[in-house]
Amino acid sequence: MVSILQVENLTKSFGDLTLFENISFGIGEGQRVAIVAKNGAGKTTLLNIIAGRESADSGAVIFRRDLRISYLEQNPYHPSGLSVLEACFYSQNETVQAIAEYEQTLLSNDHSKLDEAMAQMDALKAWNYELQAKQILTKLKIEDLSQKVEHLSGGQLKRIALANVLISEPELLILDEPTNHLDLDMIEWFEDYLIRSKMSLLMVTHDRYFLDRVCNDILEIENKQLYSYKGNYSCYLEKRQERVEVFNAELDRANNLLRKELEWMRRMPQARGTKAKSRIDAFYELKEKASQKRYEKQVRLNAKSSYLGKKIFEAKYISKSYGEIKILEDFAYTFSRGEKMGIVGRNGTGKSTFLKLLMGEVKPDRGSIDVGETVVFGYYSQDGLQLNEGMKVIDVVREIAEEVRLGDGRKMSVSQFLNYFMFTPEVQHNYVSKLSGGEKRRLYLCTVLMKSPNFLILDEPTNDLDIVTLNVLEEYLQSFEGCVIVVSHDRYFMDKIVDHLLVFEGNARIKDFPGNYTQYREWRELQEKKNRQQKVNDSESTKSTKILAPRDDGSEQKRRPSYREREELKQLEKDIEQLEKEKTELEKALSSGALNNDDLMQKSTRIGEVNDLLDEKGMRWLELSEIEN
Q: Which CATH number fits domain 313-519: 2.60.40.420, 3.40.50.300, 1.10.569.10, 3.40.50.10400?
C-alpha cells in the first residue's frame, strides 16, 4: 500500500497537561482510519495538527507530494458575506472555480458571460464534475444558493462545509464529527458515498454504526499513547478487550513479583555488589510498571428517580405551524410509565420544536398539554449549555446537590458521580474553561441527571460525547425507571434505548412505529420495495396496448422481440442472478470482521459497483420483458 501520510513521534501538551506523547502512525491510499478516545484526550487537536491548524511540541507530519487534502472541522467557519454557492465551491481547485463561475452566471442571468463560462467548462472537461457537484448539493438538501452564510443555522453550515470538501474531490479527507447535525437519511447517504469512494479517510466520530460500516482501521488514544487495531469498530471492541485482559494479567504478574522483590529488598538493604545493584534497579522498574492503573469493569449505576404518579403527561390535540410550514396538527398522545420514546425525521420537520412545545418553551396554536403533578423534568437541549467558565467542575455540580440518590437506597457523593461519568479527581478540580467541548457537554449532562428527574427529555444528547461516555449514558438510561423522550441521529444509541419511535415525515405527518430504529429502517425498505413493485404493476395494468407495430391494413399488432433481444433477456436473467449471489457473499464477508485491510477496501468498492449493475440490468430487463410479454 502506497503511503500518503506519515505521523512521526508527535507530542502535544497544554501547560502541565500532556495529550499524547511520541505517537506515530501512517495512512495509505484508500485506507479509512478512525480515531477514538475519551473527550479531552486530544482527538480534535491531533486532526488540527495534521491539517496544519495547530503546531505540535515535537514530531513531524509528512504528506506525499502534491496530495489533495480537505478538512471538515467539527464547527466549520465561513467568512461572512459569502453566498451558499460561494461557500460550497470555496476552493483553490481550478475546475471547482470554473464550476462556481458557471453556476454564478446562471444564477445572475448574465448571458453575456455565459459563453465564456461554458468555454472554460469545456476546456477543463468539467461537465461530469459539475453534475457530481449538483448531485452532492441535492443529496445534502442545499437549494437556496444565493442565501448568505451568516443567516444559516449550525446544521445548514455543516452541510455546506461537507458539500465543499466533497466537491473538492480530495485524495485525503479529514473529518471531525461529520455526522453531527445531519439527519439519518443524509448520514446513510454519506456512508454509502464514502464506501464507494476511493478517497483515504482520517476521521473522528462517535457514530458507531458509521464507524462500523466505513472504517477499516481504528486508532485509540489512551493514557497519552496510541494503539492501532485492524478492522472495523466491531473488530476493535473485541481486540481492545483482548488487550485489556492481557494488560491486567501482566499487571497481576508484576504485582506478585513486586511482593517477592520487596521482601528481598527489606532483607538485604546492605547489599552493594554489582548483581545486587542491578537487581535493585530492576526492582524500581518493576515498581513503576506495577503502579500502572488497572482496567476495572464499569460499575452499573442504578439511578434513583423522583416518584412518578399515575398521571404523567398528555398532549391534547395540539397544533403548531410557522406560516405555511406545519409542525403538528391535532396531535394527541398520552405517555405511559417507563416509556422510552425516540423521535426521528429529516432536519426541519419540527423535532426540536415538538420538545419545546412539551416543555412549555413554545406555545401551541391550538390544543393543550396536561402535565401530572409528580412529573420532574430533566431537559437536555442542544442550545442549553450555559456553564460558568470560572468555576471548578466539582463546584458546578455541588450547586445542585451534595449527593446523588441511587435506586437501591444507597447514596453517592458528587465526586463519585462525576467519576462515573469519566471526570477523574484531577479533572474535577480543574476550571470549566479548561475542558474540551465534549467534556463540557458531559458536565452539562451530569447537571441534568443529578436533579433526580423522572421524565427525561434529551435533544441530541450524543453530539460531541465520546463513545465511552455514550456507553455510560446508555447503561444509565436502560436502568432509568421514569419516562424518556430522545431526539438523536445516533442509530446505535436509539437501538439500545428506545422501545418505539415517533417518525416526523414533514407537513405534520407523524407515524408511531412500535420498535427501534433498525427495525423501522427494515420496515421502511420493505414498504419502499412494495411501492416500487406496485408502480411497476400499475404501469403494466394501465397500458392499453403493448409495444405495437403497424399491420398492412393500417391496424396495429404486437411487435415480436428480435432474436438478439431474446438472447439479451436470457443473459440478463443469468447476470442478475449471479450479481444477487455476489452481493449476498460480499455482505457476509464485510460483516464477518475477518477481512484484512486490502480485502476490506476491495470488497467495499465492489459492493457499490454490484448495486449499480443490478439497477442498470434490472431496468433493461423490465424494458425487454415488456416486449417479450
A: 3.40.50.300
